[in-house]
């Protein structure tokens, strides 16, 4: 009997030691990940400093909150405020929209961006913010009205859906040919970094380092058409994490190496291979090769989307607690 008790005690000790070892290894892995990500934060581009964005145009009228560029029904804010929001008040939130409109249009050198929507009308474009249980998106613009749908959990985490979606409004890219998403999403994601946000697809990690992990056989079909048109919508939905980071990285490379002006020319073109050579005096393949060679010098960060989410927010990418 004594022996049996000794054996059980011994096995119990092993379990406890095993548990401690596992917890320590897990903590060390997390620490490595944190240190690795932290040490790269300095490698990010400096956020764009725009001028005179901090005027306060907030006011309340009936059941609505307003700022210069946005409006929001009171109950929309109440929904965001049910959990911890990244913004202290509706005033701070709507002023943040105004700041984004001002700074993105300044960065993209499109001070008169509203003209493209209003035709002969003289009305300003007002963004109506609403909640959604789906993905964030911006629609409209014509006749002075744009609609910005933002899910609560992204507002709560300050994951820059504002910058991303407002870039789509200021620099629309509604091609008649399908799947021309790469530069459109590339610019919206690049702007989140320029505005100093972590970005919903990279969560503060340096985008070139994240993109590097996708330079492989599995993503060759995507690399073949990066900056052009996607193989299909199914492909886009199946490879979103790779798609957003590769498009962001390619866009960042083009803008930072060759300037915004040339990039915007291709952006407004039909996304054909020839549009690159006409604009850059180098072929699409040559430019892509330069980008790939640059990525090879970057440190690699092989984190899944889930790992990044949990590391930063302690939640899964669906917004549920972990
Ligand atoms: Zn987008």
What does this molecule look like?
It comes from Haloplasma contractile SSD-17B. The chain folds into two domains: 125 residues; 147 residues. The chain has 322 residues and is α/β, with parallel strands linked by helices. The radius of gyration is 23 Å and the shape is globular. It has 15 helices and six strands. A hairpin with a 3-residue loop joins strand 2 and strand 3. The longest helix has 39 residues. It binds zinc ion. The site of zinc ion (ZN) has 4 residues, from helix 6 and helix 7.
Topology diagram in text:
Layout: H1 2-40, E1 59-61, E2 64-66, E3 70-73, H2 74-81, H3 90-107, H4 115-118, E4 126-131, E5 137-140, E6 145-150, H5 152-157, H6 161-170, H7 182-194, H8 207-212, H9 220-224, H10 233-238, H11 240-258, H12 260-267, H13 273-280, H14 284-296, H15 305-313
Parallel strand pairs: 3-4, 4-6
Antiparallel strand pairs: 1-2, 2-3, 5-6
The structure holds zinc ion (ZN).
What is the helical fraction, as a range of percent? Answer: 40-55%
Strand order of the largest sheet: 1-2-3-4-6-5
SSE arrangement, N to C? HEEEHHHEEEHHHHHHHHHHH
Task: Report the end-to-end length measured between terminal Cα atoms.
Answer: 43 Å
Strand content: 5-15%
Mean pLDDT: 81
Q: Please give the domain count.
A: 2
The structure class reads alpha/beta
- Count every beta strand, where a strand is a DSSP E run of 2 or more residues: 6
The biggest beta sheet reads: 6 strands, mixed
What compounds sit in this structure? zinc ion
């Amino acid at each position: 009997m004594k022996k049996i008790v000794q054996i059980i005690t011994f096995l119990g000790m092993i379990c406890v030691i095993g548990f401690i070892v596992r917890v320590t290894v897990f903590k060390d892995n997390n620490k490595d990940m944190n240190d690795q990500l932290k040490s790269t934060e300095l490698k990010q581009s400096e956020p764009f400093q725009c001028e005179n964005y901090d005027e306060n145009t907030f006011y309340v009228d009936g059941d609505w909150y307003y700022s210069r560029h946005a409006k929001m029904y009171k109950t929309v804010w109440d929904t965001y405020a049910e959990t911890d929001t990244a913004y202290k008040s509706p005033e701070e939130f709507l002023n943040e929209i105004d700041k984004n409109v001002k700074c993105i249009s300044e960065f993209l050198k499109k001070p008169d961006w509203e003209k493209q929507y209003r035709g002969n009308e003289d009305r300003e474009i007002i963004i109506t913010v609403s909640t959604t249980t789906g993905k964030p998106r911006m629609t409209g613009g014509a006749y002075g009205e744009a609609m910005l749908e933002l899910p609560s959990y992204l507002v709560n985490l300050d994951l820059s859906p504002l910058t991303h979606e407002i870039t789509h409004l200021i620099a629309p890219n509604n091609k008649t040919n399908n799947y021309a998403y790469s530069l459109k999403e590339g610019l919206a994601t690049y702007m989140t970094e320029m505005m100093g946000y972590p970005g919903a697809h990279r969560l503060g990690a340096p985008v070139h380092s994240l993109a590097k992990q996708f330079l492989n056989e599995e993503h060759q079909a995507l690399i073949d058409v990066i900056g052009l048109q996607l193989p299909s919508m199914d492909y886009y939905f199946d490879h979103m994490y790779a798609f957003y980071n590769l498009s962001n990285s390619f866009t960042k490379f083009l803008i930072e190496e060759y300037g915004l002006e040339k990039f915007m020319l291709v952006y407004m073109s039909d996304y054909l291979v020839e549009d690159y050579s006409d604009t850059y005096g180098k072929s699409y393949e040559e430019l892509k090769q330069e980008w790939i060679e640059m990525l090879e010098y970057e440190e690699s960060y092989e984190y899944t989307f889930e790992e990044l989410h949990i590391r930063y927010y302690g939640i899964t990418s669906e917004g549920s607690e972990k």
